[in-house]
Structures are given as C-alpha cells and as structure tokens.
Amino acid sequence: MRASTRTSLALLAVPTALVGVAACGARPSAGAATPTPSTATAERATPSFPSGWRFKTGEVATEGAQAMVVSNSRQASEAGVEILRAGGNAVDAAVAVGFALAVTWPEAGNIGGGGFMLMRMANGQTAAVDYREMGPGAASRDMYLDGNGQRTNKSTLGHLASGVPGAVAGMAQALRERGTMSLAQVMAPAIRLARDGFVVDSALAQSIAGTRCNFLKTGGEAVFCPGGTPMAAGARLVQADLGRTLQAIADMGPDAFYRGWIADSLVAEMARGGGIITKADLAAYRAEGRTVIRSAYRGHTLLTMPPVSSGGATITLTANILAADGAAPAFGTAAWTHLLGSAYQRAFAERNVSLGDPAFVKVPLEKFTSPDAGARWRRGIDMARATPTSALETRTMNDGDNTTHYSVVDAMGNAVSTTTTLNGSWGAKVWVRGAGFMLNNEMDDFATAPGKPNMFGLVEGEQNAVQPRKRMLSSMSPSIVLDPAGRLLLVVGAAGGPTIITGTSQVIFNVIDHRMSLADAMRAPRIHHQALPDSLTYEDGGLSAEQLSALTGMGHRLRRTSALVNVNAIMRGPRGGWQGVSEPRRPLTNGAVGY
Ligand code: DON
Annotated catalytic residue: which of 156, 278, 333, 403? Predict the structure, then answer.
C-alpha cells in the first residue's frame, strides 16, 4: 500500500485533485453475462483484478460469530462492542460508536455536525433518522456570493460555513426510539475516552499533522498540538473540555447541547467569528424520522436513505438502470465499467436537479424508485459509446475530507448503518472554545450558487439553494441489503462526498452481481461518475490497459486518481456469523471488531 493513499483519500472527493488521463484506442470488449445468484449463500466467485492493481483477491475479513462493528476508529468500534457485550442492541452500540468517534476521530466523527442512521431490526422493521444540519434562521440564498456573484470560501471555511448541528439530537432520538439503554450508559465509553484519554493511532496522528495546527489556534491547539507540535502516534490524547460536554449531554440529554451551557458556548463562538447560528436556531433543531427507501434489485432488497440524503435515491435509480436490461456484464470488462459509469452519470444528472429538502421543495422520488424510470434511462445508453452529460435529458442547471461511516450488527440480527460528517476534514476549522469540539462546514453542501460547482464539483440546481432552516442535500448513503430469502446480508456505507454513492453501491453490486466475497468486493477497483464534471474517474491500476483503451475509444473522458472512497461494511458469513471489513485503502487501522 502506498504511503500517499491516506492523503489521496482526503483529496479524493475534490475533482481538482484528480490527475491524469488514460490511453486511447479500440472498441469495447463485450462482457460475458454473470448469472444472478439465487441465495445469499450462493457460492462466492473470485474476481480477476488487473495485474497492476494494488490488492489481491482472497484476503480474509474479520470474523464475528455473533456480532460485528466496523468503523474508521478501532477504539470507537471497541466502544460499540463494549455496549453489545453489556447487553445493548445494535442501536445502543451505534450511538456509543457515534459519540466515541467524536472523541477518537474528531476530523469527522462529531457532535458539531450531522448524519443519517438507517436501522433494520431483527423483526423486520425499518427506521431512519435524519439528523442533517440545518441552515441558520438568518441564512439567505446569496450569502456566499461576492459583489460580482462569485462564490466565496465562506461556505467552507470559518464561522459562516456551519449549519445548525444535528448529531446530538439524532443519536438521542434513535436511542429513544429503538435502543434499550440510557444515554448515560451508551455514552460512558466516549466520556472515558475523552477524560482519561486514549492512545493516538497513526490515522489520527496523520490527520492532526495534516492540519499543520493552523486552524486549531482558536483553542484546539492546546489539545491536538501541545506546544505547537502535532500529537504523534502512541501519545495519549486527553480532551477534558469535550469530556465535560459529553458528560453534560449524558446527564441532561440533548437539551444540554441545544439550550444549555453548550449552546451558550456555541453561540459565543459564533459571535467571535461573525457566525449566524443563534440560540433560537439551536432550540428549533429537530431530528426527523424518515421512511426508508425499499427497492428490489435482482431478487435482493435494498434499504436506503431517503432525502434529504440523495444517497438512497441515487443508488436506487442506478440499480434500476442496471436491472432494466438483463444480467450485468462480467466484472473487469469495459462493458461493465461503461454500463456502470453511464448509469451513475444518468442517476447523478437526475439527482443534481431533482433533490432537495422535502420540507421546502417537491421531491419527485418516483423518478428514482420507479423501475420504468430506470428502464427509460437504460434505453438511452449506447453500449458502444459514451453520452456527453450535456445531451442527457434533465432540466438545465440554471435554475478529505471528512465523513465517517460505521456499520453494526448485533447477536439478535439488528443492523444499523450510520454515516456522519463535518463535511470537510475538521469541518469549518472552527473550534467551540470551552466545549471542546469542531463545527461543520456543511453549508457548502447547499447549491450556494445554483448551476456552479461546489467543493466536490457537484453542480446542483435551485432545489438545493440556501434557505433559512432548510437542510442541505447530502450524498451520504447508509445502506442495508437483504438476501432473496429476506435475511440480513449486507450493512454498508462510506465517506467521500459524492463518491459515497458510487463506492457504497459498487460494494453492493460486487456482492450481488459479481458474487464476490466481502473482502474482494471491498478491494475491487472502483470508478466514479457524477454527470458533471463529465468524466469517468478510476483508480490508478484499477482498469486494465485493454479497458482503458476500449473506454477511451467509446468517448469517455477518463480521470485517474489514487484511491476512491472510504467504505466500512459487514456481511453475513458463508457459514453464519458476520464478516467485517474496514476500508483496505486506508490501512492504518483495522476498525472491524467482532466477537
Ligand atoms: O453530506 C455530504 O454529502 C458531504 N458533506 C459528505 C462529505 C464527505 O464525505 C467528505 N469526505 N470524506
């Protein structure tokens, strides 16, 4: 594994970081059809990876006979396992992991951001909590434009970039509705980690070093960069203020955050830096229960997150496009890459103009969930030729990193899939003094200038324009897959901006269409297309010379990057139990812990 991969993952969602263009040449090779497996336990097939690819097939997953937690931080996964072993269910454990990540993975794990939690209980019930941030009451459509109508960096950096945080409200709501333990019980591991400290692993050390301690000067530097030196791997990190904050939430519930002294600290921080979040905004924040999107894909059931995440809708439309015309071409063929890339291109073209906060705009979800809509898009794909995004029929567009995903399965078979984020790495680079946590820069996920690209290169329309108390569109895609017998098969999600959608769904397609083991499905080379920029991104070494040549011949604009997406997943083992795989492109820590 290359030493630079962690950095690349940090950059991967930023199109300007993508490099290079590939070869040119011949016609596509026709792919052999892959049969659809009839059951979850159908024998797994070993894919063939290109000779230059960094991973081998046949690696093993972490096994758990009863339960599994996979996150980006081993200590946070252990916090989840501690709660499971103490008799908690998957929701209790997920909330424990969420709070622990705010301590052990502070560049993305958070209480100053937001996220989505998707649950499928062992009795078959499904539930979803949307705790996405909300625009402050004083937010306005053009607040991030300068006098010439150009985007400024105020939606990404500094106090104006933060939306009203949702994480505390959302996790508390999920716990109340589906958990079995108290907030104090599930927060105990996080409080301990903050107060007593924990040993910094190399992933966190790299992340802190990456900040150059610049933006932590508002108070965070004493914690993360004592004496101006970034905390090194092996050092003990104690976060006393954060410990007090978490204790207050554990004692008093979310009101401590939304109405009590933590709210006062946050608003005082806003006043220091010209931010606009008020106490009234915090008091008005509510997490929303959502109806899970349920769709069929080749005999399996996909359970995905509805708006204000775009993840579930876009994955569902992609799956509908793929399923509209027979079995998938074989993995590793130009035909598969072309079909998949073209399906993503179309699904994103629809996503970028149609989706927004359902409390503010009409969201035509049927354009994503209807198999007929998928079939219409599928008929427009020429298997020999790429289609320019400009030729696709959607309305015109006039009108790092970091996120973190974790998956939990308990011994009863309850499953939780959660993605949470500050948006950019370390969010708005604003530290709430006295309370010990970072604030998000999620306002950039609005179309701050509709029709112009945001920091992920996404070009979105009026549906997602800034409005007070509106939620910004997200790509986070916590997902759960059931096998044809209706049993839990896969719990999966990712970090990586819009590549979350493509990375998460490729693990799903690798398992369902290409019958890969989870270890192979996670290591298989990935691609990405988001309609605009109109290019097909691939991982260095992930496409064979023959594929590169065929795809270029079809007219794809190819972009090479070193690594795409940070996925964490759990899958039912072939002989029972659970397999966990944390992102292999990020080898610094194994975040899969089972028992
Ligand atoms: O909600 C979203 O779609 C983005 N804020 C996610 C950002 C992200 O994944 C950054 N990186 N890993």
Answer: 403
